[in-house]
Amino acid sequence: MNFGELHIEGGKARFFADGKERVISCKDIVWAYHKDADDEIVFHTRSKKKYQFEMPKAEARECLNVLKRQNPKLMIGCSQRGGRLPMNSLDNTRDLGSMQTRDGQHILPGRLLRSGDLYHASYEDQNYLRKKCNLKQVIDFRAEKERKERPDVVIHGAEYIGLPIMDEKSGEMLWEENMLNRFAHFQGDAEVYMVQFYEKLVLDRKAQHAYGEFFRFLKYQREGATLWHCALGKDRAGVATALLLYILGVHPSAILEDYMCSGDCLGKDIESALRLLENWGLPRRALKNAEVMLSAKETYMQHAFEKILEKYKTIDKYIKRAIGLTAFDINFLRDKYLF
Fold it and tell me: How many angstroms separate the CA atoms of 327 and 227, rounded?
């Protein structure tokens, strides 16, 4: 079939570039999408080559369908950078795909998904993760007690890995069924508590080891998407995501922006929790503490990275010494997930 300058037949894509005919196997195309603004189709190959062809939207849609039939593993579409997936029960499930690095590369869509727990995942959302995202690996950062009280739904074809960042002895910041009751009895300063909790997430040896294991799971994942989560998807998963984005070369401002998106995604859940607490007759101080603990605030993540710099001088030294990643590991992750 012909699509402008592009001809697709027999599992091959043929076109002219630099005065020469190029022939590429459709199976070597890993990511393709249509750019509305420029009316062109773009695809990236396994060898990191990028090709662009002028093509109107209707023709591009058919071209992408043909490419997908030739290569079922092909990632289609250019999501909003780090954008929320179209879920009806998982408000804070986002694809890091299309986020740009400082050297102009992009994270491959459909491979790296951050989320809150999957306890209430609807059938439609489970199906989306299984079919559209090709979910193959779920990494759960919650403690054992949390996982037992709010177990993830089982998504067929995905391997589940329990990788607790903190355990029950590490404090009260564990999101169990009685968490609202904990807000009611919390007597401390919520702001101070959260700042200290983020500090513990980056400096505690158990947490550091767990994050190192997380990156190794990403390194050895062969195909499909990996989804990682804690309870809400903003604290333990937020630190994991921030470190991953740093390793992949994303600009610090974009890392912080991605972290703050959790606050927007969780807005309805936070409002519901606060209304419930208010109906319980909790005093204003308890409501304020709950709002602080449920929110994503720049100061939390900024403090975590400040403590890293204070102890390790640079983030790179922290990644090497505390997390345990070598230069080879980092280059491997970049080569695997960047295009």
Answer: 24
pLDDT at res. 169:
61
Q: Write out the two tokens for 117.
A: 């727990």
For every residue of the chain, which 3-state class applies, written as one string? CEECCEEEECCEEEEEECCEEEEEEHHHEEEEEEECCCCEEEEEECCCCEEEEECCHHHHHHHHHHHHHHCCCCEECCCCCCCECCCCCCCCCEECCCCEECCCCEECCCCEEEECCCCCCCHHHHHHHHHHCCEEEEEECCCHHHHHHCCCCCCCCCEEEECCCCCHHHCCCCCCCCHHHHHHHCCCCHHHHHHHHHHHHHHCHHHHHHHHHHHHHHHHCCCCEEEEECCCCCCHHHHHHHHHHHHHCECHHHHHHHHHHHHHHCHHHHHHHHHHHHHCCCCHHHHHHHHHHHCCCHHHHHHHHHHHHHHHCCHHHHHHHHHCCCHHHHHHHHHHHEC
C-beta separation of 23 from 11 below 8 A: no
Per the CB < 8 A criterion, the answer to whether 73 and 28 are in contact is no
**Per-residue pLDDT, 179:** 63
Residue 306, C-beta contacts closer than 8 angstroms, at least 6 positions apart:
none
Position 77 scores a pLDDT of 77
Q: Distance between alpha carbon 85 and the CA centroid of its chain, in Å?
A: 10
Q: How far apart are CA 301 and CA 242, in angstroms?
A: 9
Mean pLDDT, contiguous 10-residue spans, the chain (339 residues): 90 88 92 82 89 89 91 78 87 94 93 96 96 95 90 96 82 53 78 94 97 98 94 96 98 96 90 84 84 92 98 98 98 96
Return the residue matching tokens 């921030």: 242
Phi, psi for 87 (deg, rounded to 5): -105, 150
From residue 12, alpha-carbon distances to 24, 49, 63 in Å are 6, 16, 13
